[in-house]
Amino acid sequence: MLWLDVTRDGERAPANRAPWTLADLEQHAEAIRTLRTVPPAGRQVLERLVDTDDPALSAARIHEYVRRLDRGDVVEPFLDGGAAAGRIGDALALARWWR
């Protein structure tokens, strides 16, 4: 199963997006709650910095942005791996709806 924010992504999942399993959600639940502590404007900036076509550049830009905010702790759980840019993008989409 794949999380899809149809209000933002439409009804079709992006081809480069890997599904989040229930285990992924359980593992990252606290990190997603922490990500919600970033004000909406800050999360919107992070969303704009996500570039799945160039994940390394995207990760560098995201790291620089959260370093300036002194909030690296909120994105680190999502920037570990080859699909890092997609993971932080997914996490931001989840954070919009997470309760």
Main sheet specs: none
Task: Provide the domain count.
Answer: 1
Low-confidence stretches: none
Overall 3D shape: globular
Mean pLDDT: 81
Q: Tally the beta strands.
A: 0
Describe the 3D structure.
The chain is mainly α and 99 residues long. It has one domain (20-97). It has six helices and no strands. It is globular, with a radius of gyration of 12 Å. It starts with 5 loop residues before the first helix and ends with a helix. The model has no long low-confidence stretch (mean pLDDT 81).
Protein traits:
99 residues
Structure summary:
This protein has one domain. The protein is mostly helical.
Topology:
Elements: H1 6-9, H2 22-35, H3 40-49, H4 55-69, H5 72-75, H6 84-97
